[in-house]
Every structure is written in structure tokens, then in C-alpha cells.
Amino acid sequence: MKCNTVRTKLAAYFDDAITGGARVAERIQVRQHLEGCSVCREELERFRKLAVMLSRVPRNVPPADLAIRIKVAAAQGQHSRDWASRVRRIKDRAEILLDNVFRPLTVPATGGFFSAILVFILVLQMILPGATVRAVQNDVALNLMRPAELVSLSDYPQSWAPEEQDLELSLPHGLLVDVTVDSHGQMTDYQILSGPTSVELRHQLDQILLFSRFSPMLSFGRPTSGGHVVLSFSAVRVRG
């Protein structure tokens, strides 16, 4: 048996703690090693001196009320532990109850919410094709619906009668016209929202809007009649 192994067993050897059938052989091996190893014998001697010194230390007498104080402290600690554990148990039960109640409802509720949004969009697209949709500046076109737009405004009658002098009609308050466009991008009707409504002006508007180009309103990518484009004029040329 090596010195390192013996040193780990010296305390038990000194206190006669090595007992049992298998331990007897181990005790014999330790004793045989001590007979031939002076270093381990010195280590065992230190254990003996330590035991003598400890035996000379006076024993402290515990207070007379130590037992009562221990019992009171134990009772108080048990009471506090019971209260804390009771709160934890109530909290754990509440969390388990809420988890069991709401978890089965989470997935159906989420699916129902998105399904309702999808149905609402589909129904809205079925209702709105005939509704008025006006072009808005800087509007972002969506895949579901796109309003009608002005492609090019005709300059008639200037290009038709260049030899005749035209009279420019100034409109101080402007002219606002709501144009109805069919599925082919043609003007089908218009309404003057604000501004003069003279016969000459209407005649000029008829010619201008008739030869102007529009893009029809798109619903799910398909051209749809009933689109509206609002045009604003600051002046109109009237043939003299």
C-alpha cells in the first residue's frame, strides 16, 4: 500500500473506525505499512498529539434555556416556511389552471381572427366594384383594387383648328370636374363640381374629355366600369 493511500486512512485507523471483514485486511495493510514507513508513522503521531490537545480543551456548557430557544426558532421557521410554501402552491395552481384553460383557445382564436379578416376583404371587394373610387395623388396601387387614372389630356380644339384664334377663358376660382370612366378607359359622363357651367365651356369640355385617355379602375386586376377621375382646370381655351 502506498503512502498517499495510507495517509487518507490514518484518521480512521487512529480512531479504530476501520471495521468489518474487508476492513480488517485493510487495517492490517496499514499497520504493515506503518512498520516500514517512518514518514507515515510521523503523520500518525501528529494525529495522536492533536487528540491529546483536543482532550485538554475545556468543554463549554450550553445555556440552560438553549433547548427552549431552539424549539421556538424551529417553530417560527416552520411557520414562515409553511406560509411561503402555501403562497407558492397557490401561485403554481393558478398558473396551471390558466394554462390549461387558455392554451386550447389560443390557436382557434388566432385562426378565427385571420379568417374573419380574409372574409371581410373578400366581401368588401364584391361590394365595392360599383362604388366611386377617386384617384389620390401619390396613392400606392394595391393588388386588390386600383382607381381610375388620367393617362393623357387632349389639347383639342387647338390642334384641330390652328388657323382660328382661340379665346382663353380664365377661371379665377378654378374648374373641378368629376369624370366617369368605363372599363375601356373612355369617358362616359362628367359632372362639374365647381366652377362656371356655360354652354361654351361644356362644349369645350366635351371635346377635351372625349379625346383624352384614361386607365380604367381595376378590381382584382380586371378593368371595371364606374371609376372616377377628378380633374382641375385653371383655364380653358374657347374657340372664337
Relevant terms:
alpha+beta, TolA/TonB C-terminal domain, three-stranded antiparallel β-sheet
Description:
It is a single chain. The chain has 240 residues and is of the alpha+beta class. The chain has 2 domains: 1-86; 145-239, 2-Layer Sandwich (TolA/TonB C-terminal domain), CATH 3.30.2420. Helix content is 50%, strand content 22%. The chain is built from 5 helices and 8 strands, in the order ααααββββαββββ. The chain has helices spanning 3-14, 21-36, 38-55, 66-127, 199-210, and strands at 145-146, 149-152, 166-181, 187-194, 213-215, 217-219, 222-224, 227-239. The strands form 3 sheets. The protein has a 3-stranded antiparallel β-sheet with strand order 1-6-7, with no helix packed on it. It has a 3-stranded antiparallel β-sheet with strand order 4-3-8, with helices on one face. A two-stranded antiparallel ribbon has the order 2-5. Strand 3 and strand 4 form a beta hairpin. Helix 1 packs parallel to helix 3 and helix 2 (21-36) crosses helix 3 (38-55). The protein is rod-shaped. The model is unreliable at 158-169 (pLDDT under 50).
> What is the count of β-strands?
8
Task: Give the termini distance in whole angstroms.
Answer: 132 Å
* CATH top level class name of the largest domain: Alpha Beta
CATH architecture of the largest domain: 2-Layer Sandwich
| Separate helix tally | 5
What share of residues is helical? 40-55%
H and E string: HHHHEEEEHEEEE
| Quaternary assembly | single chain
Number of domains: 2
Structural class: alpha+beta
- Cα-based radius of gyration, to the nearest Å: 52 Å
Main sheet, how many strands, which sense, barrel?
Answer: 3 strands, antiparallel
**Order of strands in the sheet with the most strands?**
1-6-7
